[in-house]
């Protein structure tokens, strides 16, 4: 996010006006910049990594019309992207501290005006304070297509303590935080396909809640966040650990708002495969159950055992309590 | 760049096919992944920062039709983005070691097929080897707009040795590496507006040459890379240092290829303002001139004194050798 001035004609050596890109960054992003960002005026940011830690880094992109709706409130759009990245940090057991943002902005689209970006930046400022991170840098450019945002997140973790996907062991319980399906139902609510009188589902679609701070090293054998559908992501965790998983559909935690609109198997299947949950999926040995429950209680985060990892099958079996198979047409969402 | 499998129906617990996104990442990007990237299978990468160093981080985006042409060879497009980011590392005096990539791919555009991404990845593999960096992670998604790429680069620098933009002092020489204007003329050559019989200009547009490895700490007071036009970027360096600059247009180094097509003031003005140079712009006190020349000679990089920093004016004065003002309508390029 480099200031790029188009100062003035050389026949007049006094700077007169700031160019669009320069003033845009100054207006909307400089206030988010941490001390290491060098006021966003240099080619890069410089920081001293936390002593005695490993660093954890991830990048995610969001595209208008794919990951958010064109008429979503602008203050939630940047926060959603930041929170999905923070959820990746939570999945690794990392402590996030900084982020970078690039944006390709549709210049011909008058919605993306100064007021829009002021609200966008307001939302990010609020979440920066909430999650203790600061902006390090980035880039702005124009596009003839939809708004594309890309965010890189940086965190730290004690050496060897990062949670991985490949550590689940046979017999581990399959656990999930929070509730599942709200995000997918929230998208339907915004499309007027389901009722959402309290706004809970809509808010869960727009503002994921990254499950940071649980400190599950030594408790969970493996972890990831649920972004592309509970069943698909369970399959991923199992496959990376060279195991299978059995998932008890009747144990999957649904919010009250979800229960009030999920009236049949199709609705339940949507919750299991819709994605946009950003809850943590965990492999936890049974002798760590009480430790898991204590950590989650301390952070006021619900956690539910929804199945177990097995070695007698590959893939994911989704079962009802009576042992019958639950019908699913697909397991989740592919962004590509 | 997370693998996201859409494995199979739950009524059949054996994984059968990999989803598009999963296999796409496996086919084209896993071979670029460094050891810290966890094979691109986790939510994030984990690495140990180099001991006793500061880290330097930057992100830049490139959009089809803005920063590259839709029919540019795919192997050069990723390399151009990587090299522009490496140029940011060079400007900071940093040693790059890793990068992350997000891409928003136009799914409806049949040009962006497997063969295209294989060539794209081939180019990146070549440059990874050339510059000693490796892929740490990223994300893939689809878009209804043009291809948008965003790259984050990570490097290290000895504590306190990062070059900044704000350190120029009155009387410092203004120096530039390599030659100026080739990139802007290369774009014109690709549009059949100027001749480029040797292909030099075209190659310079497509493949910038990041000026890494010069080790100018203690020699240069300030540095940045020239991306948006020599005059504009000189103005930026001067302004951040609270100085002005005088730039001697007749000293600006042009390649033989550029000289053969620059026949008037308009052509020269294009070189001074066109951008896409990715050369280093340096503020160097005269008592460090011989050290600068020695470092550049050792790396076989040309360097030329093109002006000086002054305190008796703000902005940039662009002068001919006879002291007359050189006519410029604007100073550079705003991407936004």
TrEMBL record, chains A, B:
Domain of life, source organism: Bacteria
Listed Gene3D superfamilies: PurM-like C-terminal domain, PurM-like, N-terminal domain
Annotated positions binding Mg(2+) 4: 43, 88
Binding annotation for Mg(2+) 2: 60, 88
InterPro entries: PurM-like_C_dom, PurM-like_C_sf, PurM-like_N, PurM-like_N_sf, ThiL-like
Catalytic reaction equation(s): thiamine phosphate + ATP = thiamine diphosphate + ADP
Record EC number: 2.7.4.16
Residues at which Mg(2+) 1 binds: 60, 139
Domain PurM-like C-terminal: 169-314
Domain PurM-like N-terminal: 42-156
Residue numbers binding Mg(2+) 3: 43, 88, 225
GO MF annotations in UniProt: thiamine-phosphate kinase activity
Entry-linked CDD domains: ThiL
Residues that, per the record, bind ATP: 138-139, 165, 227
Keywords from the named record: ATP-binding, Kinase, Magnesium, Metal-binding, Nucleotide-binding, Thiamine biosynthesis, Transferase
Keyword Cytoplasm assigned: no
Pathway: Cofactor biosynthesis; thiamine diphosphate biosynthesis; thiamine diphosphate from thiamine phosphate: step 1/1
HAMAP family found in the cross-reference section: TMP_kinase
Role according to the record: Catalyzes the ATP-dependent phosphorylation of thiamine-monophosphate (TMP) to form thiamine-pyrophosphate (TPP), the active form of vitamin B1.
Family that this chain belongs to: Belongs to the thiamine-monophosphate kinase family.
This protein's name: Thiamine-monophosphate kinase
Annotated source species: Acetobacter sicerae
Gene from which the chain derives: thiL
């Amino acid at each position: 996010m480099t200031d790029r001035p188009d100062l003035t004609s050389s026949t007049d050596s006094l700077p007169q006006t700031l160019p669009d890109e320069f003033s845009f960054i100054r207006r909307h992003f400089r206030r988010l910049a941490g001390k290491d960002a060098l006021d966003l005026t240099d080619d890069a940011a410089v920081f001293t990594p936390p002593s005695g830690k490993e660093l954890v880094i991830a990048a995610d992109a969001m595209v208008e019309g794919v990951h958010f709706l064109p008429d979503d409130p602008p203050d939630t759009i940047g926060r959603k992207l930041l929170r999905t990245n923070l959820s990746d940090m939570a999945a690794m057991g990392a402590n996030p501290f900084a982020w970078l943002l690039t944006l390709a902005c549709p210049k011909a689209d008058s919605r993306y005006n100064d007021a829009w970006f002021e609200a966008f930046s307001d939302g990010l400022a609020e979440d920066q304070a909430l999650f203790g991170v600061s902006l390090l840098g980035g880039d702005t450019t124009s596009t003839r297509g939809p708004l594309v945002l890309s965010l890189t997140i940086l965190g730290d973790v004690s050496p060897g303590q990062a949670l991985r996907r490949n550590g689940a062991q046979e017999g581990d319980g399959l656990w999930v935080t929070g509730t599942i399906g709200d995000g997918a139902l929230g998208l339907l609510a915004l499309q007027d396909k389901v009722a959402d009188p309290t706004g809970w589902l809509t808010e869960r679609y727009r503002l994921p809640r990254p499950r940071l701070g649980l400190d599950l090293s030594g408790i969970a054998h493996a972890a990831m966040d649920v972004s592309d559908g509970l069943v698909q992501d369970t399959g991923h965790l199992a496959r990376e650990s060279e195991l299978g998983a059995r998932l008890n559909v009747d144990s999957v935690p649904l919010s009250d708002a979800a229960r009030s609109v999920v009236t049949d198997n199709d609705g339940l299947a949507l919750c299991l495969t819709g994605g946009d949950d950003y809850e943590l999926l965990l492999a936890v040995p049974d002798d760590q159950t009480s430790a898991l429950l204590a950590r989650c209680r301390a952070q006021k985060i619900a956690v539910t055992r929804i199945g177990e990892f097995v070695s007698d099958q590959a893939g994911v079996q989704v079962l009802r309590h009576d042992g019958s198979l639950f019908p699913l047409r697909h397991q989740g969402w592919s962004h590509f």
